[in-house]
Write a structure and sequence with these properties.
The protein is built from 5 helices and 17 strands. A 4-stranded mixed beta sheet has the order 4-5-6-7, with helices on one face. The chain is elongated, with a radius of gyration of 27 Å.
Length: about 300
């Protein structure tokens, strides 16, 4: 009888221990939001990100950041979503400096196409900042910094749980091979919904874009930097560095094909009627154009050949 009582007490203790253990384990879990990419066949297309809620152990600091990145590599339970980070890309180091989480990935990250890389930037930034006290993120591939400054959630436009990235088709102009006129081509770029389209046009021209006709020859002088580009009452104000004046391609009539390639590209935007050039923040009186210090309107066929 005594043995039976002891056995009953031991059984009760074990049950209570198991219940307490289960409670402790449940208290050590937390729900996090992990950014996942929409499948190409979904209505959102490949540009959108959606968040999937998951339960992970309750951890903080660098352990939390590593776990969040690890979750971004897992296949989502929602079949309409896919992982943003491929398994060929690994996180090698993560640190935190004054509220900024520095994520160092393997060098393979730098080989992603621009649209894929931008999606990774957004997904990592939103995932890390939503689930921690971090203010922003810096992302490197090995020792190479992949972007300027700190990435913060405010850089990305979100609508409920979806990232809105638009595909814009830009009409770009550039000097033809004979250097006696301009040719046009189409170029698709992916932009956040509130992106500065004028800046996107200029940055695309400066980088030498890939268009529907293939690679466009970079015609703007090497070293030229874009300080800003903004539209005010139909005029696009483009502020470029001094290097812009170092090189020019002139048509037989002396007209600057460089100037008009930029003007025609920007005025292809419906909200732009003319372009005012600034050099390091100031208007210049002349640069192969008699009114370079005033807004310039696009040339029409017959004055510069547009093919």
């Amino acid at each position: 009888m005594r043995n039976a009582k002891i056995a009953a007490v031991l059984f009760a203790v074990l049950c209570l221990s198991g219940m307490l253990s289960a409670c402790a384990k449940s208290g050590q879990m937390q729900t996090v939001s992990i950014a996942c990419a929409a499948a190409p066949s979904s209505p959102d297309g490949t540009g959108a990100l959606h968040f999937e809620e998951r339960s992970i152990p309750k951890v903080t600091g660098s352990v939390l950041y590593r776990r969040l990145i690890s979750e971004m590599q897992k296949t989502p339970s929602n079949t309409a979503l896919s992982a943003v980070l491929g398994y060929g890309i690994s996180l090698t180091e993560v640190t935190e400096e004054d509220g900024t989480v520095v994520c160092v990935f393997s060098e393979g990250l730098s080989s992603l196409e621009a649209a894929q890389l931008e999606r990774v930037f957004c997904a990592v930034t939103l995932t890390v900042c939503r689930n921690s006290d971090a203010d922003g993120v810096r992302i490197l591939a090995g020792s190479q910094a992949l972007h300027e400054g700190v990435l913060t959630p405010e850089l990305y436009v979100t609508d409920t749980n979806a990232l809105r990235i638009e595909t814009r088709e830009l009409t770009l102009y550039y000097p033809n091979l004979e250097q006696d006129g301009l040719e046009s081509a189409l170029c698709e770029v992916r932009l956040a919904a509130d992106a500065n389209v004028a800046e996107a046009v200029m940055e695309t021209l400066l980088s030498g874009p890939v268009t529907d006709k293939g690679y466009v020859i970079r015609f703007i002088a090497d070293g030229t930097e874009l300080h800003s580009a903004g539209i005010d009452d139909g005029i696009c104000y483009v502020d470029l560095s001094e290097e812009f004046l170092n090189e020019n391609i002139a048509a037989p009539d002396g007209t600057s094909l460089v100037v008009y390639a930029i003007v025609n590209s920007l005025t292809a935007l419906p909200e732009v009627a003319g372009v005012q050039f600034l050099i390091d923040g100031e208007a210049r009186q002349a640069y192969l154009h008699p009114h370079f210090d005033q807004p310039i309107t696009p040339r029409t066929p017959g004055t510069i050949t547009v093919q």
